[in-house]
Specification:
The chain is an alpha+beta fold. The chain is 25% helix and 46% strand. The strands form 2 sheets. A 4-stranded mixed β-sheet has the order 4-1-7-8, with no helix packed on it. A 4-stranded antiparallel β-sheet has the order 3-2-5-6, with no helix packed on it. The protein is elongated and about 80 Å long.
């Protein structure tokens, strides 16, 4: 095989590889659209709350930590950090701490089209203050 033929084969293989990798990473965004926000946080209570959100990967390493001050009935949507726009985590832990005295832990996975819904409020039946965590998947 001469040098020209070998170069053509290598260039062709390189183009096919780039197309395959591009298809793998770009096609899901084409089908579903841009990533959803990482989380929405709602204070459904009548008092202010300080909320700390911590996300840990499967090695218990913090990959996201943010503190929020929420007024009554305020809702905040946290955009997805750049690295979490393209990162899939099969096992991670979402930890929500309210006013340094109530904590809720949620074992889950994280990917670009999964948004966490976190609500704090008073349970209408028991009167206790609770933290509710759910997920919306596109």
């Amino acid at each position: 095989m001469d040098m020209k033929t070998r170069n053509k084969i290598l260039i062709g293989a390189g183009i096919v590889l780039l197309l395959a990798v591009g298809f793998y990473f770009i096609f899901p965004f084409y089908l579903v659209g841009p990533p959803s926000p990482l989380l929405s946080l709602k204070n459904g209570d009548a008092i202010n709350h300080e909320v700390v959100i911590d996300i840990f990967d499967q090695n218990n390493k913090s990959i996201f930590k943010e503190t929020y001050e929420l007024d009554p009935d305020e809702e905040i949507r946290q955009p997805r950090p750049f690295l979490l726009k393209f990162r899939w985590l099969k096992e991670c832990t979402l930890k929500v701490t309210v006013d340094d005295n109530a904590t809720k832990v949620y074992e889950t996975d994280v990917y670009p089209w999964k948004e966490f819904r976190i609500t704090m409020g008073k349970d209408p039946i028991s009167g206790e203050r609770n933290i509710w965590i759910g997920a919306i998947v596109v």
